[in-house]
Design goal:
2 helices, Ice-binding_C, 6-stranded antiparallel beta sheet, 42% strand, 6-stranded mixed beta sheet, signal, 19% helix
Amino acid sequence: MKALRYVTTTAVVAGVLSLTSLRVCADQTGSVDPSLTWLGYMNVYDLVGGNSQGNYLWGSSWGVSDLPATWSGSELVLRPNTSTWNPSDPYWVTPGGQPNKWLEANFYVDMGTAWGGQTVTFSGQTVDNTLVSPYSAVAFIKEFTSSYGWVGMSTAPLSSGSPFLVSRPIGAGNVVQFGFMLTGPNADPAAVEALGQVRIAVVPEPGAAALLGLGLGLLACCRTRRG
């Protein structure tokens, strides 16, 4: 009976690990994990009427701290951009001291083509979202061709005290990015506190090593009980 129980226990643990491996192969999940390589990108648009997005102008890689996006303890904090505020430069600030550009700040992880051909899910928990109009923020999954030609994007709102989840099937060989996007006018540092922010809980994704350790731990526990 002991041999049978041992084989059964081993099979159960192996089955759990196999199912986990199969799920990871069939689907991929992104999480709000600061240990991942997070990048910044800013798209710049004309500002229309002081509160609306106009024509697209340009985009470039951007410093994460200048978006800004910051890790604060167990939270990720997103705020309106102030790094472009320069009252002496009419490109960014009107002669009357008002914002002159609409910004799309992207904070994201680029998985390259590793997740192509699979369904990708990105989920987490919004602690709070106090952004005032016209500022807004969403969680996203973006899809590009292997040469970074635009394919499309799926998004989910970031509502205070609520979980978010966005899922997208990705074409084979395509690039996947997941992360957050905050849009709105560039902001005066002296007034930014009144514009609000988004706080998102940090929830690292358990790694394969941790899952394997869990399986081995269960097996060791069963062995101990048989003794």
